[in-house]
Amino acid sequence: MRLIKVGLASVNTTVGAFSRNVDRALTLARRMAAEDVTLGLFQEQLIGGYPAEDLVQWQGFIDHQWPELERFARETAALSTVFVLGVAVAHQGLRLNCAAVVAAGHVLGLVPKEKLPTYNIFYEGRTYSRGYPGMAEVHRGVPLGDYLFRFDFGVLAPEVCEDIWSADGPQRRRTYSGAELVVNLSASPFRLGFVDTRRELLATRAADHQCTIAYANALGSNDGIIFDGGGFLNQNGRSILETPRFQEGFTSAVVDLERTMRLRAENTTWRSDREEWVADGGKLVPILDCMGILQTRREKLAYPSPPHRSFFLPGPDQRRPAREALCEDILDALALGVGDYFEKTRAFKVIGVSLSGGRDSLLTLLIAHRYAKRVRPDNPGSLLQAFYMPSRYSSDTTRDAAETITRELGVPFQVIPIEEAFDRELAVVKQMLGDKAVTHLTEQNIQARLRAQRMWNWSNSSSGLFLQTGNMSEKAVGYTTIGGDLMGALAVIANVPKTVVMYLLDYLQEKTGYEGIRKVLSKPAGPELAHNQVGEEELMPFPILDACFYLFAGEKLVPAELVQALTSMFPEVEPSQIKVYVEKFVRLFLQSIYKWVQSPLSLHIGNLDLDRERALQMPVVTASDWTRD
């Protein structure tokens, strides 16, 4: 046996908070060493935080990371644990995203990231340079390049995030060169259902390359991008450990690296593939000998036996039901996004929500309360403030729903009517228009803008974080008001489709039994800016709207293809009506881009987001000729 204990850590970092980030990592490093961890793995860009984006173009942003890396090495010098952590370096005019190997007070080597994602929310090709096969340079006296590291427990291969996502990544040549344990430092954002993809990918890579893979992911939210943390340990395709997500800390497990080498020797396909690779001129990756640097302590490690004491029978099923897993992941991610924005900006003292008595503002409040309950479990309501601002179109039903849920949550609640202000603004608009009539749409927008103005005024004087409450579906088609309900400091559910909003509220109603949720759900969804307003009547059924959005913006289908797909998806709707819905959606979507590019920073939870600077980069000024048959 050759036992090794691997610790996988997730640290909630802040971009630019070098000392604080390292302090948090040191706390976990000391705990790992106290628990006899042989190898402690941290995430990508641990020191600088991620994503730093164009900040890496400032020399000072890069230069200030190295002293913190040295401090980490210095303060872990007495620990008999090898650590790998993420750092950015500037080398001969290049910015490199590296994995740093640290042991016994020394930085032993730097391995740069080779695959730089420049798609979706990522822009690394804009700022960083790539490592490459055979790279062998020196940075500040430290080897920098394509290296492996030999310790008394085995041969280690560091890599960074995207390197594992490419089938043509460095893992192949490194395992052919003798790497037994591949450690991947990652900053992979939360996306719905993506944890299953990570799990399957790591199992595939570990089986393909006949190695043990340790994967540690970043945690926390920076600028609306949410990292769910967690990590995986997989040995030659068999899952060993999956760590908790959405919480800072580390988890560890023991593996026998002799098992990895035995399985490699038994795998004739792997052996023949390696022979072919060498015969075709594949160059072995050099191994840095670190045997004399550190003597790890592994005498207390016990063979990794199953907790249920059977190698043949399955253990207890720990998986959550699919509905619970989906809803809890979304709610955890959004609550983390709200909390980290609130805390890391250090500009706010309280969180404010303008309640309409409808679904969107209710879900936003529940998400904010979820965060508040975590940090102030005894009195979460003390961190929140809710307002209800009725006009002549507001119903007693929605006011009652808003009062009920705030009472159940213990959130301070104020009713601030806008009727008098609405009359004044309406009179001013009539004066400005002269002979022209005020449109019904203008009357609706006046109400929305009055509410937003009051929320901003409250925010300015109370240091309050004003949460924007609109959902993705209505934002996509411009069913929102610039200067009104589109406004806020942080858009919490701006990337949550309306059907998902309702799904989450149904789940929360079942889970909590809150009467306030039941009262909101009992009334058809509508903004109450005019008499008897129902959103689906003014737009289209929300399932069809969300399907249009996914197929058009996500799958990039043209309108004719949308009609074909939706006709089979919704056979109960006449094809002629489907065509009307599609034409309406495409027209509204393209003419509303100018609106949603003005919306506040939003939280990302999927690959399809309405954010021009991130996921869906659409020109504001565009014609729709290409959408016609």
UniProtKB/TrEMBL annotation:
CDD domains: GAT_Gln-NAD-synth, NAD_synthase. It comes from the Bacteria. Its EC number is 6.3.5.1. ATP binds at T469. PROSITE patterns: CN_HYDROLASE. Residues 4-257 form the CN hydrolase domain. L-glutamine binds at Y119, S188. GO terms for biological process: NAD+ biosynthetic process. InterPro entries: C-N_Hydrolase (IPR003010), C-N_Hydrolase_sf (IPR036526), Gln-dep_NAD_synthase (IPR014445), NAD/GMP_synthase (IPR022310), NAD_synthase (IPR003694), Rossmann-like_a/b/a_fold (IPR014729). Deamido-NAD(+) binds at N445, E474, K595. It is an enzyme of class 6 (ligase). It holds the Pfam family NAD_synthase. The active site is at E44, K113, C161. GO terms for cellular component: cytoplasm. It catalyses: deamido-NAD(+) + L-glutamine + ATP + H2O = L-glutamate + AMP + diphosphate + NAD(+) + H(+). Pathway: Cofactor biosynthesis; NAD(+) biosynthesis; NAD(+) from deamido-NAD(+) (L-Gln route): step 1/1. One of its GO terms (molecular function) is ATP binding. Keywords: ATP-binding, Ligase, NAD, Nucleotide-binding. Belongs to the NAD synthetase family. In the C-terminal section; belongs to the NAD synthetase family. Catalyzes the ATP-dependent amidation of deamido-NAD to form NAD. Uses L-glutamine as a nitrogen source. This is Glutamine-dependent NAD(+) synthetase. It comes from Stigmatella aurantiaca (strain DW4/3-1).
